[in-house]
Amino acid sequence: MDVLRSVRARRARPRVVPGPDAASPALSWIGDERIAISGVPSPQAVERLAGQGVTHVVNCRLRAQVRWYGDLTAERAAFGPGRVAHAPMQDHGRRQRPAVWAAAACFAARVLDDQPHAGVLIHCSAGRRRSAMLAYAVLRLRGHDRTRAAALVLRYRPQAQLVPAYVHSVERWLAAAAQ
Predict the structure, then answer these.
(1) Domains of the chain in sequence order
(2) The pTM is what?
(3) Is the C-alpha dihedral spanning 16, 18, 19, 20 positive or negative?
(4) How many CA atoms lie within 13 A of 89 on its CB side?
C-alpha cells in the first residue's frame, strides 16, 4: 500500500481541460444571432476569443470546475468582470433551477439587444447540454418561438442536446415571468 501511494505521489498528473478542443475550442455561431456555443476554452485559448468575435462570455460550469481549471478567472481577466456571467449549473438531466441560470440568460439577451456588434460565447464543459439550454433560453428571450429556438441551436451546434427537462425549465420560467 505504501509503495502504491509513493508511486502515485511521484506521477505527474496533467490538468486536462475537457471540451471539444482544449487548445482552441470550435465555436458554433448560431446563424446571425451573434451567439456562439462551445466547450470550455483553456485559459490560453481565452485570449484568442476576442479575435473570433467574442465580446462577452457566459460560463455554465459548476463553481468547483471553474475553481479547479481557472476558466472563469481567465475569462474575467481577458474580458473584464462586467462582460462575463456565470451560470453554475449541474449537468444532471433534471429540472434546472432558474435561480442558477436566469440572470445569465438575461445578461446575454440584454447585451445582444443593447450592443449591435457584441458576440456572446456560451460554454459549458463540452458545449452540448448546459450551454445549449442557455442559448435556447437567450433565443426565447429574444423573441424566437420554441420550435425556431430549438432548430437554431440544433442546426448550428449539431452535437448539442436539448435535454427535455432543461427546455421545460426554460419554458416554465418564461411562463411564470409572463404572468
Answers:
(1) 19-178 (3.90.190.10)
(2) 0.86
(3) positive
(4) 33
Whether the per-residue pLDDT at 7 is higher than 90: the answer is no
Q: Which of 7-21, 46-60, 114-128 has the lowest mean pLDDT?
A: 7-21
pLDDT tens, residue by residue, 45-67:
998 999 999 999 999 999 999 99
Distance between start and end Cα atoms, the chain: 62
Characterize 65-85 residue by residue with b for buried, 16 or more Cβ atoms within 10 angstroms of its Cβ, and e for exposed: bbeebebbebbbebbeeebbb
State the amino acid at position 127 in one-letter form. Answer: G
Per-position DSSP letters for 73-140, written without gaps between them: HHHHHHH-GGGEEE-----SSSPPPHHHHHHHHHHHHHHHHH-TT--EEEE-SSSSSHHHHHHHHHHH
SS3 48: helix
Alpha-carbon distance 134 to 87, whole Å? 9
71 and 145 in contact (C-beta within 8 Å)? no
What angle separates helix 98-114 from helix 164-178, to the nearest 10 degrees? 70
The grid cell for 20 is 471539444
The contacts of residue 89 (CB under 8 Å, 6+ apart) are: 60, 62, 96, 100, 101, 124, 130, 133
pLDDT surpasses 80 at 4? no
Q: Which residues have a Cβ under 8 Å from the Cβ of 115 and sit 6 or more positions away?
A: 55
